Amino acid sequence: MATQGQVITCKAAVSWEPNKPLVIEDVQVAPPQAGEVRIKILFTALCHTDAYTWSGKDPEGLFPCILGHEAAGIIESVGEGVTEVQPGDHVIPCYTAECRECKFCKSGKTNLCGKVREATGVGVMLNDRKSRFSINGKPIYHFMGTSTFSQYSVVHDVSVAKIDPKAPLEKVCLLGCGVATGLGAVWNTAKVEPGSTVAVFGLGTVGLAVAEGAKTAGASRIIGIDIDSKKFERAKDFGVTEFINPKDHDKPIQQVIVAQTDGGVDYSFECIGNVAVMRAALECCHKGWGTSVIVGVAAAGQEISTRPFQLVTGRVWKGTAFGGFKSRTQVPWLVEKYMKKEVKVDEYVTHEMNLVDINKAFDLLHEGSCLRCVLTMFP
Ligand SMILES: NC(=O)C1=CN([C@@H]2O[C@H](COP(=O)(O)OP(=O)(O)OC[C@H]3O[C@@H](n4cnc5c(N)ncnc54)[C@H](O)[C@@H]3O)[C@@H](O)[C@H]2O)C=CC1
Ligand SMILES: N[C@@H](CCC(=O)N[C@@H](CSC=O)C(=O)NCC(=O)O)C(=O)O
Ligand SMILES: [Zn+2]
Ligand SMILES: [Zn+2]
Fold first, then answer.
1. From the CA of 70, how far away is ligand 4's center (Å)?
2. What region holds the Alcohol dehydrogenase-like N-terminal domain (predicted)?
3. Quick one: residue 68, left, alpha or beta (phi over 0 = left, psi -120 to 50 = alpha)?
């Protein structure tokens, strides 16, 4: 039955309130308007940023909403004026848009895009500043411009990357956030050179992807730091060459690393979202040139600090969103690299479940064994 132009009623996991179990609801998804597309979401993973917003600590968190931003699917229909994708195309929704026309896109200096970010930050579509999701007439907010915990989602056309239809969607969905972010933090944001020493704080999906990116960039030492020693064995497969558990040391971790690396590392990456660790990550960098990249997302009200002397003496503090990748242009390229076996993706999928089990999947995020849990949306 043709669904184009019709309201679709489908299943979605709705977050009614912070910290309360998500509820599988019948949700009405309106057709896409001008400059929008409706995607049949086939697979979505959970990222820690979903858990962060669900916890109520995200200043942009709005409820009720449909979370989810690491997914893959097929275009069901397109709105007026959409030319770059059509029904049947395989796509990855992208929370970092790329309009190619705004000041940010044209700057050549950033992957951030200004076209839809303000609207996505308040959970609506740009066109009419309304949500396309509702339950019996009650609007449900969008999240990150993606809302992939729904069997159908409407996103802006500038927020969708068309990918190789041969790519396995149940795997490449991970290129919609965590894996891409870690790789890009190394390749685009830090620009790690061969022979560099690297410290990675936090060995979850993002940290392991940083390690993998550093390995392919030719780093000579990749030091993984995590408070869970069980993380260390698996991390070797992603390129980590040595491990430090801060709990095994009395001294601050930055002093331990400086002592073990002849004055500090060339590059460090904070992949946790802990502001104290962000400071340690900066301060373990080498005087004169060491660069630290903040990847982790810290809660509202948290602030970073260090002695300005750390920067005066040549250390550089940076941050990265989606690893600096230009989403529509480079996500298809990342998918091709995966298809050519030049980057790992399958190895990050540790669990698979159906949409109805989404609350169990959220519980798994807090278990050390879980990297990514991929949900099948149409079992
Ligand atoms: N900037 C961006 O574009 C993106 C940021 N993120 C953020 O990156 C962070 C990491 O995400 P995931 O890898 O999915 O998280 P995760 O929770 O799987 O990994 C975090 C790791 O840090 C370890 N850890 C926790 N506290 C620690 C401490 N004090 N010292 C050392 N290790 C510690 C944990 O044991 C865990 O292995 C999150 O804050 C997430 O929100 C995620 C995707 C994109
Ligand atoms: N609303 C949050 C923003 C958290 C954040 O920094 N998000 C990252 C992506 S995290 C993905 O898993 C990001 O891309 N930021 C850039 C942006 O434009 O949002 C908060 O306010 O804390
Ligand atoms: Zn994410
Ligand atoms: Zn733009």
1. 20
2. 34-163
3. left
Enumerate residues 6+ apart whose C-beta is below 8 A from 203.
Answer: 211, 224, 225, 226, 228, 231, 232, 234, 235, 240, 271
Whole-angstrom distance, CA of residue 256 vs CA of residue 69: 37
H/E stretch holding 256? helix 253-260
Strands (E), 31-137: 36-45, 70-78, 90-93, 133-135
Ligand 2 nearest atom to the CA of residue 121, by list position? 1
The Cα-based distances of 18 to 43, 65, 141 in angstroms read: 24, 10, 13
Q: Please tell me if the CB atom of residue 47 comes closer than 6 angstroms to any atom of ligand 2.
A: yes
**β-strand pairing of 267-270 with 242-244:** unpaired
Quote the ipTM score.
0.99
Residues known to be catalytic: 47-49, 69-70, 99, 102, 105, 113, 117, 177, 372
> Cβ contacts of residue 18 below 8 Å, gap of 6+?
54, 55, 56, 61, 63
1 band by pLDDT with thresholds 50, 70 and 90? low
Q: How far is CA 280 from CA 86, 251, 274, in A?
A: 47, 12, 10
Pick the residue whose CA is nearest to atom 15 on ligand 2.
Answer: 321
Q: Considering Cα of 327, then 322, then 185, then 51, what sign does the dihedral take?
A: negative
3-state class (DSSP) for residue 91: strand
Sequence-ordered alpha helix ranges (H) in 261-353:
275-283, 309-312, 327-339
**Nearest-angstrom CA–CA distance, 4 and 24:** 24
Distance 297 CA to ligand 2 centre (A): 7
User: What pLDDT digit, counting tens, does each position of 256-315 carry?
Assistant: 999 999 999 999 999 999 999 999 999 999 999 999 999 999 999 999 999 999 999 999
Q: How many helices, marked H, and strands, marked E, lie in the chain?
A: 12, 17
Average pLDDT, stretch 166-171?
A: 98
Among the bound ligands, name the one nearest to the CA of residue 126.
4
CA pair distance 101, 92, nearest whole angstrom: 21
- 288 alpha carbon – ligand 4 mean position (Å): 35
